[in-house]
Amino acid sequence: MKRTKIIDLFRPELIGQEVCVMGWVRTRRGNKHVQFVALNDGSTVKNVQIVFDMSQFTDEQLKPITTGSSIKVDGVLVESMGKGQSVEIQARELEVFGTADPEAYPLQKKGHTLEFLREKAHLRPRTNTFGAILRVRSALAFAIHKFFQEKGFFYLNTPLITASDCEGAGAMFQVTTLNLNNLPKTEEGQVDYSLDFFGKPTALTVSGQLEGELGATALGAIYTFGPTFRAENSNTPRHLSEFWMIEPEMAFYDITDNMDLAEEFIKYCISYALEHSLDDIQFLAEHYDPELVERLRFVLDNEFVRLSYSEGVKILEESGHKFEFPVYWGADLQSEHERYLVEEHFKRPVILTDYPKEIKAFYMKLNDDGKTVRAMDVLFPKIGEIIGGSEREENYDKLLGRIEELDIPMKDMWWYLDTRRFGTVPHAGFGLGFERLVLFVTGMTNIRDVIPFPRTPNNAEF
Ligand code: ATP
Ligand code: MG
Ligand code: MG
Ligand code: MG
């Protein structure tokens, strides 16, 4: 018999029909007359209840059905009398694919802590919580492509191995040629990590933006969506060493067009998730964050506040609030400052613009004051910075000036400067950290919990 996914069982026309389901057992309970098994197959956060009439099955047959085991059941779908479920399956036939020794299977309890599950990252997708998070993550990824594709943006793949440090922060991972099964050794017998990429020093990309600009100044509007790497040894709940970034880049856009796009984009993604992943979001709200749905709808219904960095700093200075890090004009804002503006002062998302050039990257367009650049950071409740972007400096001489001022090795940048040498155009773009968006939409508070395999300074095992 053909398998039906659990998510497709809740259709009225299936009532009374024979169905076949396959999945992993969450729990089993009951007595000698009847046994109830909660089964999940990953297609939805909902489990389906399988009812075993013990006059038709033996104890021996059901013995292998423990938490974590995998089974196939044929039976009749009926309306359920039980609380919290609309349908259940009366089992006729049972096949066990794989057992899960209760002594060894780590996911026994109903409510493991997120910290415990981080230690079991290889199995945690089998929990309701991580199933929900990963499905929301997948829906958001689809929404991102859909948004840009429908707007006529082209998806551009930028290289992961590069020789330039886009953000100028020096936080890159070097690429070496290594055979993990046969590590090269120095004469002293130590592992030799000094090998490079076929004779050239290269690193894993921190951002696809510079290459994205090459795409935008040819195709008009592009977006990237790929992994980025940052060797920042910051153990915060918002930073990963490997994270996914979405970077749209648009020719003929100024900073206002850029802000409009960022706001429309992020609202589209949230609204798509609410429409297509509501069960999962509600499950997460119920278990972790009761105000989640309300917060998501609030962001959709309200315009983001737009103000300059200088105005933002003034508000922070005059707030009388005691921050851990000092605020003054010229300081890079920390998430406590960003969250204060969003959560305490304006009580909605904020777009801050026109930052001091010293705290922003070399490629941002200089304002007429000579001190600030046309940068924009989108700040969100619970998160702080979720998007960083800018209008780009399109003037060849000014850009060259910045490159020299910052002592960026010219030999690495000739290809980038060519976009300004030949047919330069005004353009702008931004980067959204995918995991920060997933954090916001799932209501989770630690970025390690919204990516299947978190890479942090103390976790690169599997
Ligand atoms: P932050 O101030 O939080 O360190 P950033 O200003 O260094 O972020 P950008 O270089 O502006 O980050 O990158 C664009 C976006 O990528 C950020 O707005 C954020 O959403 C995301 N991002 C940056 N660094 C990380 C990281 N280490 N882990 C996860 N997401 C990140
Ligand atoms: Mg940073
Ligand atoms: Mg920042
Ligand atoms: Mg930034």
UniProtKB/TrEMBL annotation:
CDD domains per the UniProt record, alphabetical? AsxRS_core, EcAsnRS_like_N
Pfam families (UniProt xref)? tRNA-synt_2 (PF00152), tRNA_anti-codon (PF01336)
The protein's annotated catalytic reaction(s) are: tRNA(Asn) + L-asparagine + ATP = L-asparaginyl-tRNA(Asn) + AMP + diphosphate + H(+)
Q: What is this protein called?
A: Asparagine--tRNA ligase
Spell out the Gene3D superfamilies in the cross-references.
Answer: Bira Bifunctional Protein, Domain 2 (3.30.930.10), Nucleic acid-binding proteins (2.40.50.140)
E.C. designation(s): 6.1.1.22
Q: Which UniProt keywords apply?
A: Aminoacyl-tRNA synthetase, ATP-binding, Cytoplasm, Ligase, Nucleotide-binding, Protein biosynthesis
Gene Ontology, cellular component aspect: cytoplasm
Q: Which HAMAP family match?
A: Asn_tRNA_synth
One Gene Ontology term of the molecular function aspect: nucleic acid binding
Q: Which PANTHER family match?
A: ASPARAGINE--TRNA LIGASE, MITOCHONDRIAL-RELATED, ASPARTYL/LYSYL-TRNA SYNTHETASE
Q: Which family does it belong to?
A: Belongs to the class-II aminoacyl-tRNA synthetase family.
Sequence ranges assigned to domain Aminoacyl-transfer RNA synthetases class-II family profile in this UniProt record? 134-452
| InterPro entries noted in UniProt | Aa-tRNA-synt_II, aa-tRNA-synth_II, aa-tRNA-synth_II/BPL/LPL, Asn-tRNA-ligase, Asp/Asn-tRNA-synth_IIb, NA-bd_OB-fold, NA-bd_OB_tRNA
- On whether Amino-acid biosynthesis is a keyword of this UniProt record, the answer is no
The species this protein was found in: Muribaculum gordoncarteri
Compartment(s)? Cytoplasm
Q: Name one GO biological process term.
A: asparaginyl-tRNA aminoacylation
Span of the signal peptide = none
Tell me the subunit arrangement.
Homodimer.
